[in-house]
Amino acid sequence: MDLSKQYNNFAGDFSVNQEVQNQINRTEMYRIVGEDLSGMKVLDLACGDGIDAEHYRDLGGEVIGLDASEELIKIAKEKYPEVSFICGVAEKLPFDNNTFDAVFSKYAIMTSADMNPIFDEAYRVLKPKGTFIYLVTHPFRQFMERRDLSDNYFEQKLVDCLILNGTVILQEPTHTMNEYLNKDFFRKFEMIDFIESHDPAAEQIYGGQYPCFFVVKSKKK
């Protein structure tokens, strides 16, 4: 199953609730993106309902939003008609090499079982020295969502994620930190910044407080 398609089942609820509940991760993402995208061609990868793409447009970017969910793309086009939105998958982007100055993605690419094709595609469509920023579910949080501390962190499995203060349940494959930050990634990109943070909108397993997401800012080599 293409897990990015699961958003079709709850696209309306996701769009309504994420504007209110996604404040912490959105603040961190916007901070690391910066305040000026003037003259930059930007891809919002797995753009959801378009709220972030609209923000990047407000910062001066020429923005294209891409998402695998037809229902979320439909909502995005209705909410933000001034932004270009298309359906597509992160593993096979419908763009030429060296098209974008920046590729941004928030809480999305971890729905893929394999990060490497996504990183390959981001590298391909970015211009030399282009910026790649992604925010994903922290592997520590995914391990907690297994709900079994004796489980094998290194074995990938699907976990249920209760997000947006319990208003949406989705599934994600677990990942290790090494899947995101390995020698292949660093052959393609230079890391500029790294942030890990708690997210109160995510379910807190066993009542603890732990990193729920991390953000990587990098440059194409």
Give a concise summary.
By secondary structure, the protein is an alpha/beta fold. It contains 8 helices and 9 strands.
Q: How are the secondary structure elements laid out?
A:
Elements: H1 11-21, H2 23-33, E1 41-45, H3 51-58, E2 62-67, H4 70-79, E3 84-87, E4 100-106, H5 116-125, E5 126-137, H6 139-145, E6 158-163, E7 168-173, H7 177-180, H8 183-188, E8 189-197, E9 213-220
Parallel strand pairs: 1-2, 1-4, 2-3, 4-5
Antiparallel strand pairs: 5-9, 6-7, 8-9
Features:
seven-stranded mixed sheet, 8 helices, globular
Task: Provide an overview of this structure.
The chain is α/β, with parallel strands linked by helices and 221 residues long. It has a single domain (3-137, 176-199, 211-220), classed as Rossmann fold (3-Layer(aba) Sandwich), CATH 3.40.50. The chain is 30% helix and 29% strand. It contains eight helices and nine strands. A hairpin with a 4-residue loop joins β6 and β7. The longest helix is centred in the N-terminal third of the chain and has 11 residues, at 11-21. The chain starts with 10 loop residues before the first helix and ends with a strand. The mean pLDDT is 90.
